[in-house]
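Q: Sequence in, structure out?
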Amino acid sequence: MPKLPAIEISSKPSTKEPVIFLHGFGGFGLVWRPLQKRISHLAPTLAFDLPGHGDALNYPGFGPPVVGARAVIEDLDRRGITQAHLVGHSMGGAVASLIGLLAPKLVASLTLLAPGGYGTEFNHSLLMRWAQASTASEISSALSAFFGDGFELPSKAIEIQQAVRSKPGATDALVKIAAAMSRDGKQGMLPIDDVLAGKYPVSVIWGTEDRVLPVTQGRALEGKVDLHIVEGMGHSPAEEAPDLVQSVIEKQLS
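A: Exactly. Output:
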């Protein structure tokens, strides 16, 4: 299989396991750059473009999160990485969790930001609108729903999304992936107990104003993981609560 495109940031040599960032549906590795820079002095970092997204648009066989999980496992093996800390948002959280199931020895820790697959309920209509968005106004309208009220959406984020989605077949790929992640308007559910049975620590961050995945799915994990419920936050912890996300990752590295 081909390599997955990835952004690599590390300010100095380190003996620590790398931190692998896995973006959400409709995203790409570039969205992680601010967090990569925040922790690059502690550990090497990689932020992948998952199959069907960004520069991995033409990755063969893209579809549900398990495709991304297998692609990441293969790529890390190719790079000689035998263990890593995984940070996954939304769909990327499902990918990270599946890596924990498929290759548990590879996982040093899981940091999951409003992860997919932890319940059947999700905002299917919003994800389909997000998948089909191509103009600046369509992207802005859909993307704003991923954040809590009062969050100011950077104009640069809209510009970058529009540039990525201007590639031939980009929105078609997202529509196909969205369809593969759902059935009758519900998302596929992971075997959560099996994911949490791994020998790696798991931290989860969820916002009370998440319009994509209900916070009740996060609250159901209370007592089972290192859980952080953030009042007023939407579906995007990395942008809305970067200090918290950084501190949780750093705790995993310590």
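The longest strand covers residues 107-113.
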